[in-house]
Prior knowledge:
CATH class of the largest domain in chain A: Alpha Beta
CATH superfamily of the largest domain in chain A: Fe-only Hydrogenase (Larger Subunit), Chain L, domain 3
Distance between the termini of chain A: 48 Å
Order of helices and strands of chain B: HHHEHHEHEHEHHEEEEHEEEEEHHHHH
Strand content of chain A: 5-15%
Shape of chain A: globular
Strand order of the largest sheet of chain B: 8-7-13-9-10
Largest sheet of chain B: 5 strands, mixed
Number of helices of chain A: 19
Largest sheet of chain A: 5 strands, mixed
Structural class of chain A: alpha/beta
CATH topology of the largest domain in chain A: Fe-only Hydrogenase (Larger Subunit), Chain L, domain 3
Shape of chain B: globular
Number of helices of chain B: 15
CATH topology of the largest domain in chain B: Rossmann fold
Number of strands of chain A: 20
Oligomer: heterodimer
Amino acid sequence: MINITINNKVIQVEEGTTIFEAAKQHGVLIPHFCYMENVHQIGSCRICVVEVEGGKTLMASCVTEVKEGMIVHTNSERVRDVRKVIYELMLSDHPKECLSCWRNQNCELQDLGNLIQISEFRYEGAKSKDIIDTSSPSIVRDSSKCILCRRCVTVCNDIQGVGLMNPHHRGFSTFIGPSEDELLGESVCTNCVQCVLVCPVGALKEKDSTAIVWEALYDKTKTIVVQTAPAVRAALGEVFGYEPGMLVTGKMASALHELGFNYVFDTNFAADLTIMEEGSEFLGRVKNAITAPGKNDVLPMITSCSPGWIKFIEHRYPDQLSNLSSCKSPHMMLGALTKTYFAEKMNIDPANIYVVSVMPCTAKKFEITRPEMFNNGLADVDAVITTRELGRMIKDAGIDFRNLPDGEFDSPLGLSSGAADIFGTTGGVMEAALRTVYELVTGRELPANNLHITPLEGLDRIKTAELKIENPLPEFSFLAEVTVKVAVTSGLLGAAELLNEIKKGTSPYHFIEIMGCPGGCISGGGQPRPVNDAIRTKRLEAIYREDEGKLLRKSHENQDIMMLYHDFLGVPLGHKSHELLHTVYTRRSKN
Amino acid sequence: MTTSYQLKRADFIFKYENDWEKILSKCISRTPQELINELISSELKGRGGAGFPTGLKWKLAAEVVDATKYVICNADEGEPGTFKDREILSMVPYKVLTGMAVCGYVIGAKEGYIYLRGEYFFLQPELNKAIREFEYYCKGINLDFTIRIFMGSGAYICGEETALFESMEGKRGEPRNKPPFPSSYGYMGKPTVINNVETLAHTYTIFKYGAKRFYDLGVQYSRGSKLFSVSGDTPKPGIYELELGMSLADFVDEFGDGDTKAVQVGGASGFLVPRKRFDETAIGFQGKLTGISLPTGGSMMLFNSSRSMFNVLDNYLEFFREESCGQCTPCRVGCQQLLMGIKAVKRGEKNAKYLDKLLRLTETMKLTAKCGLGQSVANSFSSIVENFREEMIY
Lengths: 591, 394
């Protein structure tokens, strides 16, 4: 332990603690800006500077470690003075268009100005950058608002390993983004949009789709169908002031009905369907690998629900595309079924159906533009809005969310199992798949604690588990005594690690689940801000609560899924499935 | 006037000496501790401008236990008005190479790098030739030490030691947080000694003639001689080796054109000294003689009465606005604001009091910028604005 003095208070903290953390632990809050807990170690904004006695200059408290006997002042005249000057400098290179900014009243720059009592702008000045890039289907980048905190650089490089967002040029001309003439829409950007989640101002935002959704809602000739992903219900409440981890499934369904959607479906239905298809695909690959090696036996098989991850592998590991499951992501499956199965059943012309997906994800906005995601010239899904955008629409429509009664999803694409719910969190798809695969193979329930595979839960970067198959049913006898090895990762840095193993031929796994965003969909790029590990954990717990609260917890027991196969699809991996539910991937350039 | 103020020429650095093999062999027959002690007792301080004691720097790196360490010669001579390192490397490269190898021997490093300023590409062929010959000799005496040239790409900021490491590691040249310091965490995260070209050349003098010979030059706190790059309104621009501690008045007597209005000591990041303060200003590292004492990388720019100090400052600020790495707010936006600010005052768009707000801004930059670049913009700004306020306004 180390003894230091902060603002005349003698405190003890652990060695290696920064001044900022030490102060926080003892109730002294130092105004800060670019700081991101545990990951961002650049100290670029200089807002958090403090006076350390004996030092020639002030020290950035977020990166300076405590030393024995240090005497620190966090609110001396000098400190408060320079803090204001630095803030005014930031503001001098920032457009003052707060009222029309999408981040108005949800802006860390505004909050900081308020906190440190800014009352004048002494330094009016030139604006350095005015690049507005709308080329991406997922992100809009407005450099004029960027204050160069570089959080997005940290996320894009150190957490996602994509390495696209970087500083360019020098001095006052410095800007953050892809290189000079490169557009986001034509780059290796995976559209994971973790950068938007950390941007303190309005420089990075999702491409807004609410306008086209409103337009569709006003078009009375159309049947408007909406579907919501599992992770949305665990985070939407935060937009309306609920604590993180509050499940608002019922209110969300009501709000969607009130907004005027004709049918409110649950993407979870398609998650169950994904398990049927992907599980069958997996068993097929394993069977081939064991009984007829050489054909359609590429292992490990990797999940394909996360379109950010898909774009990443297409750019970075194009030789490994055959490892991907050919399943479309669940909301694309549901979109395809809506315009075929549902249209047929309800006798509606599919051309008059408009499908909106509410997703925790911005990469889905890109996904629906992929040419593979069209069927007979009709897009499987017509628009994607994020959790944040749905929140804005509900507010805009004047719906009193907190006082809504609980509503229900509509049939026939609304019923889902608990296995589908956990798709929203890292490890969930794998657990859901194993619940079904194990039971299909052995006829017995997955031998796990309340159906949970504990080593696959939580926020660790790479999680692994093994499952030994004993006494399989006769048709799966080839699996007897086989130990199935699985791995789960979320965030693209972990993905790269597992892919490198596959490339080298050292990967021991049969089945890998990869989600593009750290923590999985619960902290996807379209979820409410802020996102940190504490909030991730709460959303994750909510998802598991939803699962455990259901009687139906295994995909293959979902009666509506059975009916769908019986009435329409035939069997998993059948002809219709291939046409509607499976896809192909594209090799893309590495830069 | 005391004797310590007199301007005295010295001639060590450029003296032609073809005995580097002997000096190197002699050095490695001594213990590292002896060599460190020799350096410490010479009181040699870094000649890049910051003036950190060289012996202490070597000692700190020697004390860290690590199988891999590096010696880096900082030849990214980018300070406006400095051109001495270029001459050292083209005239007496062996002194620098010897200094590096001895340093490698002392701290336990097997690899040395010369970070050569991008614009000095023309030095490369000759320097490489010298390095090859030097390495050949090292092999002969069983000294495991190699030297490579790393070409810079023209960024001023890469002269800052941690930005230089980043640049060498293939990253964007931007300063790191300090601590940790290079002696424990430098190039590739390994213990590193990084010395200016001239510093290394001085170690040659010290190891050849002994610490006392060096120590006897100069004055207290500022021992030895130093190269000065003299430019501006002077009848004899060039590089001169002078003992430290001289007064600026003596310097101007020798190099001025009779009409010297001010001298910029230490380049754009240094201080401007007006005529009325020539007498009380000494050129050295620290400690008061009778007036102020200025550390310097050796750039001495003389301005006569025909020069507008507004233009001088404008020029410096243009330079800083462009050469700031763009990382921390105070430097990135501050330099721009200072430049815009003095222009606005000059044009009459802002009243003279705005200069005081700008001075306050430089104070913030000095206290909060991440590295020496941003911190030292205040030096020239405040010394020019405070001494020539009138010229800023009218």
